[in-house]
Amino acid sequence: MSQPIYLVTGAHGFIGAWVVKRLLASNSKVVIFDKSPDPHRLRLIMDDDEIERAAFVAGDITDGETVSQIVEQREITNIIHLAGLQVPTCRVNPRLGAMVNVIGTINIFEAAKNSGGRVKRIAYASSAAVFGKNDGAVTEAQAGGMNTHYGAFKRCNEDNARVYFLDNGINSVGLRPLTVYGVGRDTGMTSDPTKAMKAAVVGRPFHIRFGGKTDFLYVADCADAFIRAASADLEGAHAFNSHGETIDVAAVVEEIEKLIPSAKGLITFDPAPMALPPALDDSAIIRALGDIPHTSLAQGAKETIERFARLHSEGRLDTSDLDQ
Ligand SMILES: NC(=O)c1ccc[n+]([C@@H]2O[C@H](COP(=O)([O-])OP(=O)(O)OC[C@H]3O[C@@H](n4cnc5c(N)ncnc54)[C@H](O)[C@@H]3O)[C@@H](O)[C@H]2O)c1
Questions:
Q1: How far is the CA of 187 from the centre of ligand 1 (A)?
Q2: Which residue among 72, 74, 147, 182 sits deepest, i.e. has the most Cβ atoms within 10 Å of its Cβ?
Q3: Could you tell me how far CA 197 lies from the centroid of its own chain?
Q4: Whole-angstrom Cα distance, residue 229 to residue 242?
Q5: How many angstroms separate the alpha carbon of residue 261 from the centre of ligand 1?
Q6: Please, which pLDDT band fits residue 199 given cuts at 50, 70 and 90?
């Protein structure tokens, strides 16, 4: 059997950059697709020689013909679809949000359909935003009652994926992370804990705009879960919770202060939790895909802070995202 060729959409984004890093580390063939030609997040975590091993194609996910052409010309066999707009953008511009997040996902499934069976499976980013406010741990079946357009779009994608399996036999896995953190996270509602780590490194005060418990997932684990989902021999259209560690924002701040004692008192947070569940039950994904890698907050925060500190010492740490 020939080697799989992965298309990673949104690969110049935060999670995408880590997916590319992990795929290249296992010598996989990778085609990067992004509207933005700027590889700065890749450069935060990889050197130029590594990055050059991936092919880059610039394009807009809302342009279905281009997406299908790329899948055809590059002989793509597996797709990891991460291109999308986050909560704040979808709130301000729901029409654009629907074009990118919903139609863009339809375009990926159409490209798979047009490939005549060469695309074996799609892993795509859904989100914990498919849940409404909830105080406990939620299972997949409790999705619904979304309180953002973004969440409604993600839920719509899960339903469309199910129909593409029923009508066209396309296998897919949607993953639902909540608060993903790590180097490269600089936008979106749940980016504040990562920004707080960066602020602590440069000795600046920072206010996290939510509190209480949330489901924290280290980006390397998130990337590995997407790769597993895009490669596993699993039939059907699945949508799985993506669990990390359920932890209080206060404990994240404590961890930062432990790693950088001079940051004590610099990081503050709102007491109100986000209107999302604090914990995602992950028994279904473990049953389907086996044990998913799990990095503790202590280790994930340490790696993130060390990398930020190194970038800072090299004069390469962009802090413009800290200006809220
Ligand atoms: N980061 C999280 O905590 C989190 C949690 C749940 C779900 N998700 C989902 O995971 C995916 C990746 O998230 P992220 O944090 O890496 O986001 P990100 O904003 O860092 O990256 C998104 C990428 O998509 C690209 N993109 C946007 N519009 C495009 C278009 N029209 N055509 C082509 N590319 C386009 C952007 O240029 C960017 O590189 C998204 O779908 C997001 O909704 C993220």
A1: 9
A2: 182
A3: 19
A4: 11
A5: 33
A6: very high
